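Good day; I would like, with your permission, to put a structural problem before you. What I wish to show you is a protein chain and, alongside it, a tokenised description of its three-dimensional fold. Thank you for your consideration; the sequence and its tokens are set out here:
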Amino acid sequence: MLATPVLAQNQENALSYSELLRRIDAGEVERVVIDPAQDVARVRLENREETVEVPLFDRHPELFQKIAQQNRSAETIELDVQPSRDPSAAFGIAANILLIVLLIGGLMAIVRRSSQAGNQAMSFGKSRARFQMDAKTGVMFDDVAGIEEAKEELEEVVSFLKKPERFTAVGAKIPKGVLLVGPPGTGKTLLAKAIAGEAGVPFFSISGSEFVEMFVGVGASRVRDLFRKAKENAPAIVFIDEIDAVGRQRGAGIGGGNDEREQTLNQLLTEMDGFEGNSGVIIIAATNRPDVLDRALLRPGRFDRQTIVDLPSYNGRLGILDVHARNKKLSAEVSLEAIARRTPGFSGADLANLLNEAAILTGRRRKDAIGPLEVDDAIDRITVGLQLTPLLDSKKKRLIAYHEVGHALLMTLLKNSDPLNKVTIIPRSGGVGGFAQQSFNEETIDSGLYTRGWLMDRLTITLGGRAAEQEVFGEAEVTIGASNDLRVVADLAREMVTRYGMSELGPFALETQNNEVFLGRDLMPKSEYSEEISTLVDRQVRAIAVHCYEQARQILREHRVLLDRLVDILLDEETIEGDRFREIVAEYTELPEKQLIANNP
């Protein structure tokens, strides 16, 4: 009932195009407003105030003709054209403006990049050395420990820069170059930082690899630019780290010497001691491969001094530990002296890593201070590997126990051996099922003077694990666990024969260190002795290895009861410390008390 009047009202407010033409002819239209933007006509009819919208076609000449005919008669119809605002036009203008802006921005980016490429091309040959007018490295000579001899030589260089009149009064000249030589982690770069902190003169630092690029002539250009800047700021120090990257022996290319690295080295040689000279510029370089450096680079006048930065001795290790322990919270039970005795052969970086690993273990175990247990675990983690879950009781565990006790028992019974520190069957990462660890004599390790008795006992100890397996389980049950031991024995026995003169062949050396091809020396390796001598060498190496192996088997066979007892204890406790191990051995043997005391670390 309510839908009918609404429908009627909608029909009255809406007109079709043909209805509009009919009403114009009937004279019922007063005003027509055409909106060409929306293609509608707003029509006001007689006796009605509201307007009616009529959709129009693209072309509607009939409408204008009807209105014109009606206006020529007595009735007048107002006709007007009022286009509404079209937002699409504004959007089109905005889109065009945005496109223009993007095009201009793209052109500017291309121009800027091309200009930067041009600048890089012009500056490609410039030195990349870091320059500091007053280097603030935070490292002074007081922070460097364990390498007192090297530090003293470099302190002289710094003193010459600060007070040159003290040396020039007696006719001394400042060294042109100092080469720091030593194994990785011994503190060569740390010394350079200390020099930068102490010198108070302009300091240039660069790596040897930064000289060499794939483009021809870039390395030589950078060398020239580096020394030009250093001369402008003289007196100055130039530090080149890892100089072996650019200073390798020439002629290593085999096909000719016109490669980029050799041209860089030639320029470096000229700048260090050439026709013009470089007065007031001190070159300090560091390398752990002095054997590969070109001989022209090592001569006096270029590197006047070769300072050896070697592994620290006991006092050096103690000083390094004291420096790195300043910011560590150590318990009262921790003795830096004991740590220094247990770590012969450790470099400064190794000792710093040792205390850091101990601090990490302390934090993981939620303790307040680093204790002896954390230090011991850190040493084992660095030297042997990460501790894994212990093995369950099985044949494999018993076999590993006999293998390790075989090593440990020989360490204790042989008179030329260094004492046992501990033996364990707790596995470590890297496939280590267990280990027997010695406390090496500090004087022997630091001096490198090994006696023939010490070397022979070393071979016997190394073969002790294999000997224990064969004596207990039989030849058919021998495992490949001693593969690394056998390789060590073969290398050491060959060195005893061919380099140390410790065999029946006589006291003369048959081999020298190999000269690799990449050093620019011999293309093909040359034999240093005849085939007959080679056969004798092989026989002597085998004789030494067999003798030590039979000796190891005989000692373990004579102490089989003790061997079984130690294995049972190790299987139960998984780790036996050296002191307790020696006490057990003393109960079962007639080992003199004096020898036990001597072996006690």
